[in-house]
Structure formats: C-alpha cells, structure tokens
Amino acid sequence: MPPLPSAHDPASPEAGARAAHMATLLAQLRADLRAARDDRSAKALARHREQGKLTAVERLDRLLDPGTPFLEVGALAAHGLYEGGVHKAGTLAGIGVIAGRECVVSSNDAMVKGGTIYPMGVKKALRMQTIAMENRLPFVSLVDSGGAYLPLQSEVFPDIDDGGRIFYNQALMSKLGIAQVTAVMGLCTAGAAYIPAMSDEVVQVRGTGAIFLGGPPLVKAATGEEVSAEDLGGADVHAVHSGVTDHVASDDAEAIRIVRELVACLPAPAAGWIDRAPAEAPLYDPAEIDGIVPESLAQPLDPREIIARVVDASDFLEFKASYGPTLVCGTARIHGYRVGILANHGVLFSECAQKATQFIQLCEKRRAPLLFLQNVPGFIIGRDYERAGITKHGHQMVNAVATATVPKLTVIVGGSFGAGNYAMCGRAYGPRFLWCWPNAKIGVMGAEQAAGVLISVANGQRERLGMGPMPVEEEAMIRGPVLENQAREGSAWYSTANLWDDGIIEPARTRDVIGLCLAACDRAPDPGFASAFGTFRM
Ligand code: COA
Hints:
Elements: H1 13-38, H2 42-50, H3 56-63, E1 71-72, E2 91-98, E3 101-108, H4 119-135, E4 139-145, H5 153-156, H6 164-176, E5 180-189, H7 191-197, E6 201-205, E7 210-212, H8 216-223, H9 229-233, H10 235-242, E8 247-249, H11 252-264, H12 303-307, E9 317-319, E10 327-334, E11 337-344, H13 350-366, E12 370-376, H14 383-387, H15 390-403, E13 408-417, H16 418-423, E14 433-436, E15 441-443, H17 447-464, H18 472-489, H19 492-497, H20 510-521
Parallel strand pairs: 3-4, 4-5, 5-6, 5-7, 6-8, 11-12, 12-13, 13-14, 13-15
Antiparallel strand pairs: 1-2, 2-3, 9-10, 10-11
Helix pairs in contact: 4-6, 13-15, 17-18
C-alpha cells in the first residue's frame, strides 16, 4: 500500500496560526478536565476522609492495572448543566484494564451531591451499559450513591430511558453472560441499592457500605422505627442475614483487592476476529494535526492530511479516488487493526453517497470496521441535484450506514451538519464510540443559514400581509439570537455535556483512542455478515 504524501509544512506561518488556535482550545479542554476531576468542596472531602473512604479517583487508581491505558467516557458530562458543579455527571467511568482484562468501570463520586443520580447521570449509566453490551465487556461498579437526585426526580424515574432502565439492562446483561461485579463502598440508597442487588457478585465494605431500599430517615418517617444505617443495611446484615452480599471487606482497599480477584477469575474473552497485523507508527507526527485544522469551518481541510497522521505507516489504499471526490474512502490499519475509512472533503453529492454505499458493502463483506471522520456541511441542495436524485442517493448511504453490522466508530473533526451527521454515522446511527475534536460544531444547519431561513420565512409572512421585506435592524434582531444560540449549542462542549458523544479528545490522541476502541470492539464476537441490507432505492 502506498504511504500518503503530505503537502503540510509545519514551519509555515499558516500552520503556526492554526496550531495556536488549537492550543487555545486545548488549554480550555485541559483546564475543564482538571476541574471536572479535582474541583470538590473541602466539606465533601473532609466528610469522605472522616469516614475513612477513598475518593472516586483514588478507588479507580487502585482498581486498574498500573501503567495500563484508561479510556475515560463522558469526562465532561453535565459540564455547565444544573448550574455547574455536577462533575462528570457524578460518576467517573470508562474502559480500563483489571487483572489483565478490559472492563467497563463506573465509580460514583460521593463528593458530588452525595453521588446522587441526576438525569445526565442516568444517561451516562445507560451509555456505559451500552458499551458493555455491544463490546461484551465485564462491568465493574464501585457504588457510593444516595440514589435519585430528588429535586429532579421526575426526570430520572419512570420513562423508558430513565433510572429503571439501568436495572432492566442489568438483567439483560446477566442473561447475555456479561459479568457484573459491584463493590458497595458507601450508602447505597433506593435506586442505588438495586445496582448491587442486580449484579452477579457483590463486595461490601464493613462500616461504610450499606444497602437499603429506604434509608434511616425514610424508615423513621414512614414507620417510626429508629435504626442506624449499619443495622439497617450494613455488611453484616447482608452477609449474615439477607444474603445480598457475597464478600465482606474491612475497608475500601480490601474491597478493591477482592474485586480484582473476582475479575481475575472470569472466563477469558473469546479470541479477537478483526484482521490484525503488527502496529506501525504513522510516517508523520500526529501532533502536526494541530497545525493542519483550520481556524474556521469555512476553510477546506483535506482529510488525507489527517488520515496520514492517524493510520499505520500512513498507508492508505484509496477507493474510487476520482469519483465523488468530496468523500474520501479507503482502507488502512490503525494499531494493526484493518479499518475502512470514510472522511469528508466538502459537501456530499450523489456520487459520494453511491460511492460510500458501495464501499460500506465491501467493508461489510470483508468484515472491516468502519471509521467515519466527520467534517460535513450536509448534502448538496438545489433543483438540478433534486432532479438527479440526491435524496434517493442520500437514502442509500444512510441505509447502508444504519444497517452495517461491522463495528462503526465516528470522530467529528470539524462540522457535523444536517443529514450529513446521519450519513456519516452520527450518534443516532449506532457507532460503538463517537468522539469530538475541540473545534467540532454540530447543528441542523450552519448558524448563518438557520438565521437566513428564519428571516426568509418572516419575509414571506410579511409579503402575504402586503408588507415589504423587513428592515435590516429587524433582521439583526432575528440573526443575533440565532447566532448566539448556535455558538453555544453547536459547540463540542455542549455536545459532550449532553453526552451526544463519548468525549472531546485531543486531535493528536485520535490514533490511540481509536486503537483502544477497536481493541474493545474486538472483545465481542463478530456480529456476523447479515447479507440482507434494506432495499436500496435506485
Ligand atoms: N437528593 C438530592 N440531594 C441529596 C440527596 C438526594 N437524594 N442525598 C444527598 N443529597 C445532597 C445533600 O443535600 C448534600 O448537599 P450539599 O452538599 O449541597 O449540602 C450532599 O448531597 C451530601 O449529602 P450529606 O448528607 O451532607 O453527605 P453524607 O456523605 O453524609 O451522606 C448520603 C450522603 C447520600 C448517604 C445521604 O445524604 C443520604 O442518605 N441521602 C438520602 C438518600 C435517599 O434517601 N435517597 C432516596 C432516593 S429515591
């Protein structure tokens, strides 16, 4: 396979300006990640220490094998929501290695409102379960949670994707043979009590860990009975009387040691199936990506310059290079894993959609996972394009993306607009993982276009009333709020706060993050070639 050539000059003034722009975004990202990890009130930390508990971060540090990578998911979930401070939506979670085995891990942070579950905390819990189910990874929970965040109880309780779904999924995971090991390391009240209850095996810390459907205050209010937390649901109650607990630990450190031993006893995962060769570093330094990404989405970005810094040996076998050139398709390896890559280089035309449909069919038959690098303003619009069938061709691509059975991975490296988001495997199209770069922008359409549509609709109404087009000051009153809203809601930070993605990643880390994702995908058996795609409208 020929290595990709590169026209990028890292020493050029343009590269310097672009790298400086990315550095500003990365400084913000690193500061926000640090705050999400470390900013906790002195009161909450003191309360932890006086109970002899480790923090969520300390627990995870001890749980995971030293020196192994941890792929954090939802690191900035709930960032800026609920008036701030609900760091990581209350749970530190990701994929980590325990006793040599990749697991989904989830550790409640009791220093964030007693580890209570906010709506975004429910969404994150469901996302982590989806990752475990799709990739057949064991699930390890370190529970320390006051259950539902009561002021928002109506948003976390009854609906199909609310709290009840977590325990429903636990039953499904058990049926699928996905091991679930839970350590009870604080008070686990109400909903939080069901997490150990629905797990395969439970470890409980004597003195601090307690499991009960209603805590002492609720019992007193409901029945008048006065009982301590330890007497109501402590380790000895559940190890000796109820049988809810399988192993008792004297402190957090011992509980974590027992969890590690339980994971070490799990049956080995099936051998991987994704075609793999020894990994090779790219020819070009991945850090150069920072100087390649333009400051504005209006400037073009040749995705081959990114691919050359993400794939092994920068080798890329391009498919139909001259046909539908605004979508680049081709085959490569990342950390040795064979992948088919689809990357935007402008608007999607009919030819791009048909090329993508054919390429996806090839990858499906060859069992190559698909990597989508999204930087898409949308599908082309206009009279000639409608007559040529752009809607029909777009449908073919969307249909193929939706129904492909090989693992799909998506990185939003620029814009993600309109049906381009769907066709390039946005969140609704079931990518196993979806990451954003800090410069990513997401929306139904660009802000200027959205403002233009609203102004045109308003002018149409005025015309029907016999009025002329609105004066420029009125146009500004429509345009201003739309642009402001889009700047906020279209940013990668808003996306990640709402868990539309699995996290904002540094562009230079893309190769390693995708490598870890592919390793996780390789843990689940091949979902199998389902020859029946839907009907392609020709
Ligand atoms: N909903 C909303 N906020 C809650 C909460 C809940 N279920 N449980 C605790 N909090 C808040 C507290 O108000 C406090 O907020 P503050 O820091 O702004 O003052 C913070 O979480 C920590 O609670 P605190 O009681 O000071 O800490 P703790 O470590 O001693 O105990 C709990 C933590 C969770 C064990 C304890 O607060 C508790 O038992 N809560 C009630 C649990 C319950 O009955 N849940 C039912 C859900 S259906």
